[in-house]
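Quick one before lunch.
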Amino acid sequence: MIEKINELKSDIQNASISNENELEEFRLEFLSRNGRVQKMFGLMGSVPNEKKAEVGKAMNEVKNLAQATFDGAKNSLHKSEEKTFSATQDISLPVQPTYTGSFHPLTRALHQIKEIFLRLGFNIADGPELEDDFHNFTALNFPPDHPARDMQDTFFVRKSDDPNQQDHVLRTHTSPVQIRLMKDKEPPIRSIMPGRVYRNEAVTAKSYFQFNQVEGLYVDESVTMGELIETLVMFAKLMYGSDVKYRVRPSYFPFTEPSIEMDVWWDNDKGGQWLEILGAGMVDPNVLEAVDVDSEKYTGFAFGMGVDRIALLRYGIDDIRTLYENDIRFLRQFTS
Ligand code: PHE
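Model of the phenylalanine complex:
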């Protein structure tokens, strides 16, 4: 019996394991349920009692040897795998740069705008991009055929051939969302409304046929023009830093009275210029009445800012078109 055990021992010692196949062969031959080690234990029954202790000890040693041989071979096989390089992997070559994803400059600017207004106590609302004439114009105090509609070159969308069916428009501004909000709920309302808008405009470095706006609306008892200007100045400072150069000038919109516009100074190669970033004003009482808000009791201010222009200023981009071309070389400049 001891002889048999020694034979098994030397077979284990002489086994050569240099790859995964041989490792598996070793396991099957020695360590599996029908393997030789297990069979050897099966012979224990025929060992005379006085020899059992000695034989058992030898058997256990062989079993441990087989297991240790297997474990050792497995470890060194895996280690050498890690160390193997094929000829195609020249480890002296410089590594390929990996590019991480990043937010689009418009998304970034929008995040920042939202953050600022959330801090100032505004919540966020939205509305559809395809609007009807009532929400986009009429309720906002643009009378039918009023020349003020020319301020916004409109993309009209006919939804059916029925001539009685009203035309729809790709919204030319986010102001129709003001109308939806005021129709939906009672003041106080303090919301911003981000969204994409469309205008049939000539494409230049400063304007595009689609762009993004953030509308703002604050309606309550005794909201004042002073609060509007304070809010806008606060916004400009939080967005561009407290040394931002801005100016507020009178303007005209059918839906606000009085109306203003805010410009921010844009430093560029050509010496710099003023860039308009938003229109604003006190909500016209006609607008409040169109949505059944009592204009004797409530007043409000509204503003609409161009996210694209704000992004141009914020990131020193000199052509609005680059925001829509998805040129990866441009976008990669914004990885942080
Ligand atoms: N809707 C206007 C525009 O797109 C901006 C604006 C919004 C002006 C709210 C006043 C109040 O030009």
